[in-house]
Amino acid sequence: MTCNLCHPDQDKSDGIPEGMKVLDRDGFSNTSDDMKTLVYLDKTCNACPSQWEGRTYENDTVYIRYRFGTLRVDVNDKTVYSKELGSGLDGRILRPIMLKHLKKAGIVTTDKRTVYTETRF
C-alpha cells in the first residue's frame, strides 16, 4: 500500500473537477478560509466504506466516505475533496486519521463542542 502523502509523485490530481481543493505536492491545501467546523459527526458505517454524516455550524450537511483507498468529502451534496490515500482494496479508516487528513487539507475541523456518535451497524 502506498500513500500519496508519502509518495507525492504518484498523486493523481490532474483534471480536478471545479470546486474541489487544489492541493500542494504534499496533498494539503494552505488555505483555510472556507474550512467548516463540525457540530456533530455520526459514523454510519465502520468499513467498506468507512463513512460519516455530519453538520457544520453554518448548517451545511457533510458526508465523509473512505472506500477503495479514497477519502471523499461532500458538503451539501457536492464533492469538495477527494484524495487517494491507500490501495484500491482499502475500505477502513479510523476517525482520528481521517480528521487529521481533512484538517490539514483545510476541509473540516472540530472543536471541543463537536459531538461524535455511532449509528449501530
Report what the structure shows.
- The chain has 121 residues and is mainly β.
- The protein has a domain at 34-111.
- The chain has 1 helix and 7 strands.
- Strands 1, 2, 3, 4, 5, 6 and 7 form a 7-stranded mixed β-sheet that branches.
- It starts with 35 loop residues before the first strand and ends with a strand.
- The model is unreliable at 1-17 and 19-32 (pLDDT under 50).
> Termini, distance in Å?
27 Å
Number of strands: 7
Number of helices: 1
Query: Main sheet, how many strands, which sense, barrel?
Result: 7 strands, mixed
Tell me the fraction of residues in β-strands, as a range.
Answer: 35-45%
Gyration radius (Cα, Å) is 14 Å
Structural class: mainly beta
User: What is the arithmetic mean of pLDDT?
Assistant: 79
Report the principal-axis shape: globular
Order of helices and strands: EEEEEHEE
Q: Roughly how much helix do the residues carry, as a percent range?
A: under 10%
Contiguous runs where pLDDT drops below 50 for at least 5 residues: 1-17, 19-32
